[in-house]
């Protein structure tokens, strides 16, 4: 396996490559320290001689290393992913070829959970809509309509991992009743586990989506789940656009089958369907982890993984699908 050939000495230029845009300071560091090259967006445009040099790719959760690009890199040893979600990288191919994949868990949990709370408060209390009302000069003609109380509501969380639990703790501070759905109940918490997403939606005032993206969760929030949420229920999605059937969501909103939605993520970013741009939907341009502090922590963890690999050291945060490879190669 190629991973055993890594050494602490500075790798040859072209060994480290970049896929897609990165945080500018991360791009600068990998260019200065490793003379990193930027890979073409189209894998077919990759020069085979350059491709053969690449042992490490630094990428983001939005771009990743999809199947065709990974297949075009014969000596790839590691993908270091800036972001906790890595559904854009072909982890099945990586595991099969002995390529390690790392991500940036934990360091972004607080900011993403804060974003979920912001969206929940906004869909219940309609602060954004009421601010637009004031700015448009409509206050002079009468007060803003009454909204809904968030405190003491029932918050259903689909996916109770690192981020889901941080959302639950915050919701509990608002005296909310927390319910959750996962494939396996989480033993360390006392919140009620609900086995199905439909039943969770039926019992919740707001359904918050916090599962990973990818094939296993594609369209998990479908028309049936939305109908179960009901005309007084809100949907909040800070996970991945792929988890929600976006057409079904638009239909449910237009039919008044749900009360509104708060979305940080979309099916085809940065495209947002014009029919989603409605007053009862709060829309954010995928800013969940987007604070200076958190992005710097994510950069540092991405670099720690890259440096550990190049030095032949254990990786700080391998993803579960390839974590076993570290034990085999070090
Ligand atoms: P995590 O710790 O791995 O948690 C994932 C949770 O989802 C676990 O509780 C898991 O439990 C559950 N889950 C997985 N598949 C499921 C399914 N089919 N049905 C029900 N539950 C399922 O991940 P995390 O660190 O909390 O991150 C979650 C996701 O948030 C990331 O993967 C990423 O896509 C997204 N994210 C978004 C932003 C943003 O900017 N908006 C930023 C960071 C992360 P079981 O395995 O027991 O089912």
From TrEMBL:
UniProt entry keywords in alphabetical sequence: NAD, Oxidoreductase
Residue ranges occupied by any D-isomer specific 2-hydroxyacid dehydrogenase NAD-binding domain in the UniProt entry: 117-288
What InterPro entries does the record point to? D-isomer_2-hydroxyacid_DH (IPR050223), D-isomer_2_OHA_DH_cat_dom (IPR006139), D-isomer_DH_NAD-bd (IPR006140), NAD(P)-bd_dom_sf (IPR036291)
Record flagged with keyword Acetylation: no
Q: Which domain of life is it from?
A: Bacteria
> Where does the D-isomer specific 2-hydroxyacid dehydrogenase catalytic domain start and stop, copy by copy?
49-319
Question: Into which family does the record put it?
Answer: Belongs to the D-isomer specific 2-hydroxyacid dehydrogenase family.
Q: What is this protein's name?
A: 2-hydroxyacid dehydrogenase
Q: Which organism is it from?
A: Microbacterium bandirmense
């Amino acid at each position: 396996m190629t991973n055993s050939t890594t050494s602490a000495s500075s790798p040859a230029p072209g060994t480290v490559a970049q896929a897609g845009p990165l945080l500018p300071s991360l791009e600068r560091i990998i260019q200065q320290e490793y003379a990193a090259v930027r890979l073409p967006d189209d894998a077919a445009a990759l020069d085979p001689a350059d491709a053969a040099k690449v042992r490490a790719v630094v990428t983001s959760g939005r771009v990743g290393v999809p199947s065709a690009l990974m297949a075009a890199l014969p000596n790839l040893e590691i993908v270091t992913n800036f972001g906790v979600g890595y559904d854009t990288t072909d982890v099945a191919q990586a595991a099969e070829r002995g390529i390690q994949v790392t991500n940036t868990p934990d360091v972004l949990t607080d900011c993403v959970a804060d974003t979920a709370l912001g969206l929940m408060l906004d869909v219940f209390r309609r602060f954004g809509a009421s601010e637009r009302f004031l700015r448009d000069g409509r206050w002079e003609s009468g007060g803003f309509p009454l909204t809904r109380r968030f405190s003491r509501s029932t918050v259903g969380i689909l996916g109770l991992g690192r981020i889901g639990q941080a959302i639950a703790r915050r919701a509990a501070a608002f005296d909310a009743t927390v319910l959750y759905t996962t494939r396996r109940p989480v033993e360390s918490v006392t919140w009620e586990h609900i086995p199905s997403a439909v039943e969770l939606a039926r019992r919740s005032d707001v359904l918050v989506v916090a599962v990973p993206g990818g094939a296993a969760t594609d369209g998990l929030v479908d028309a049936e789940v939305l109908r179960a949420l009901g005309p007084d229920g809100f949907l909040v999605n800070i996970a991945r656009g792929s988890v929600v059937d976006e057409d079904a969501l638009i239909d449910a909103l237009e039919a008044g089958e749900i009360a509104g939605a708060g979305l940080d993520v979309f099916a085809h970013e940065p495209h947002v369907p014009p029919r989603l741009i409605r007053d009862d939907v709060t829309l954010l341009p995928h800013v969940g982890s987007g604070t200076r502090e958190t992005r710097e922590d994510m950069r540092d963890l991405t670099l720690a993984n890259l440096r550990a690999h190049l030095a032949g050291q254990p990786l700080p945060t391998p993803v579960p699908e390839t974590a076993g490879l570290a034990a085999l190669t070090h």
